[in-house]
Amino acid sequence: MSETPPLLDVANVSIRLPSGADREFAIQDVSLRVQPNEIVCVVGESGSGKSMLANTVIRLLPPTVTMSGVIGFGGRDIARLPERAMRAIRAAEIGMVFQEPMAALNPIQSVGRQIGEVFRLHTGLSAGERRDAMLAALTQVRLRDPPRASRSYPHQLSGGERQRAMIAMALALKPRLLIADEPTTALDVTTQAQILKLIRELQTQNQMGVLFITHDFGVVAEIADRVAVMQNGHVVEEGPVADVINAPKHPYTQSLIAAVPKLRPVLSKPPVKSGDIILRVEHLTKAYRSTSGFIVRRELIVGLDDVSVLLTKGASLGIVGESGSGKSTLARCIVRLLQPDAGSMRLHDLDYANLDGRAMRRKIQRIQMVFQDTSGSLNPRKKVGDLVGQGLMVRGTPRRDAWRRAEELLAMVRLDPKAANRYPHEFSGGQRQRIALARALAVEPEILVADEPVSALDVSVQAQVLALLADLRAKLGLSLIFITHDLRVAANVCELVAVMKSGKVVEFGETAKVFANPSHPYTQALLDSIPGRDWNAATH
C-alpha cells in the first residue's frame, strides 16, 4: 500500500540572512512534512527559527533574505511561484493565525469587515452572501454573539475573542493547511484550553493539516501528532509526539523538557504565627468605568470585590486566575498605582491605603513592582545604569554613587555590570526582566510584586528567571507577590496562593493544599485546563 503523499513537504530549505546579521542562516537545511489531518508542532526557544519557518512556508519573507530548497504543497513547489500566484494560495489554501492579533488585525476596521474582505478578494459572493459567510465563520469558532463581534473593533474584544476572530479569518475559505504561530502564548489557561480544543476540532472537521509553532511542551503534549524541535535554525529532533516528549534523544530537547515548570507544588512551610504577617489586605474594593474609544460609559465595572489576602515574611503569595479576574488590579492597588475605593492595606502596623503625598512615597518604597511588559516599563532613551539607579537618585543619592550601586545590582541579577552603559533595546526579553528586577531591588524593598514577569518568556529563560527570583528571596529575605495565569509557575514559586474570579478571591491557602484538594469548582477548572497536565504530572 503506497504512503499518502504529504500535504506540505519542506525539503532542505535554508534562509540566508544579509551580511552583518548575528548568524549566516535563520534556518538551514530544514526538512519537515505535514500530512492531511495531522498536527505537527514545531517547538524551540526564541531565535530557533520557528517563526521564520512558518513565514517561509507562506512566503512572508523580507526582501533582504535569500531562500533555497523546496516547499512542496499539493504537488507543486510554491517556493518558486510568482507573488501573484502565491497571493491566490494564501487564505484560500493556506491560512495563518499570528501570535499577536492586535498587531495582525487592522485597528480601524471592524472585525466583520476584515473577515468579509477575505470573501470579497477570493470569491464571487454577493455582499449579502459575504455577510452570511462572515457570520458563519464567527459562529464556527464559537464566538458569543457573532453579530456583536462582527461590529466590534479589535480593541473592543478580549484576547481570547480576538484570537478566535483571527482563527475565523484564517479558516474562512476552508484552507487545506493552517499555520498557527504561537496562538495561545499570551492567553490565560482556560482560554488557552478552549483555543487548543477549537483548533483540534476544526482540524478534524475540515481534515486540515496544521503546522503549530510553540515554545510550550505542555501545548505539544496536548495537541500534537508529531513534533519537530528546532535549535539555532536546525531541526535537531523529530518524530511522533509520544516518542519525543517521553523519551527525548537530543540534549537540547532534554533540556527544554527539564525546564517545563512542575505541576507538583512546593512543600508548604510550617504554620506561621500572626507576628510573621508582613502585609495584610482586608476587604479591598475597586470599581471603575469602562471606556469605548474616547467615550466613558456610565456603568461601573467591579475590579475588586471585598478582597482579603495576607503575606507572611519571606513567603511568596501567588495570585492566579483568568484575564479580567482582578489580579493586576489587586497588584496595582497594593503598590498604590491605583487608589482603592474601600478597605485597608497594612504593611506591618501601617495602614497605607489612604496615605497621600510625601508620606505615601516614603513608605511605599518598601514595596516595589516588576511589570510584565519590560518594553513599556523601561524608558528606551535612558541607559540601564540610570534606569536601575533612578530610585536612588530620586531619594538624593548622587548619580555617581547610584551608578556604582546599579552595577552591583546588575551583577546580583547575573548580568555584566558593563550592561549599565547600554540601552534596553540591546537586550533580550529575559535580560530586560533581570534589569527590571535590579531596578526594583535598588531601594531595598521588603516586598516585591511581580506581575506576570515570565509569561512571555521561553521555557528555558523562564526557568532561569524563576531560579534567580528564588535565589534573591533567599539572599535578601524578600517577600514576594507573584501574579500569574500559569498554575505550573505558581506551584513552583509560591507557598501561598489566592485564586481570583470576577474580582473576588474564591480560594486562599497553602499552595500544596489548595492544588491537591481544591475546594472551589473554579480552582478545579483552572487545574483541569493546564495544557498537557497528565503528561506534566507523569514526567515530573
What does this protein structure show overall?
The model has no long low-confidence stretch (mean pLDDT 85). The strands form four sheets. A six-stranded mixed sheet has the order 6-7-8-3-9-10, with helices on both faces. Strands 16-17-18-13-19-20 form a six-stranded mixed sheet, sandwiched between helices. The protein starts with 7 loop residues before the first strand and ends with a helix. Helix 16 (399-412) crosses helix 17. It has 22 helices and 20 strands. With 540 residues, the chain is an alpha/beta fold. The chain is globular and about 70 Å long.
Quick take:
By secondary structure, the chain is an alpha/beta fold.
Q: Order of strands across the widest beta sheet?
A: 6-7-8-3-9-10
Give the termini distance in whole angstroms. 41 Å
- The stretches of 5 or more residues where confidence is low (pLDDT under 50) are none
Please summarize the sheet with the most strands.
6 strands, mixed
Average pLDDT, to the nearest integer? 85
**What gyration radius follows from the Cα positions, in whole Å?**
25 Å
Shape: globular
The count of DSSP E runs of length 2 or more, i.e. the number of strands, is 20
Helix-and-strand structural type: alpha/beta
Number of distinct helices = 22
Q: Into which percent range does the helicity of residues fall? A: 25-40%
Residue fraction in strands: 25-35%
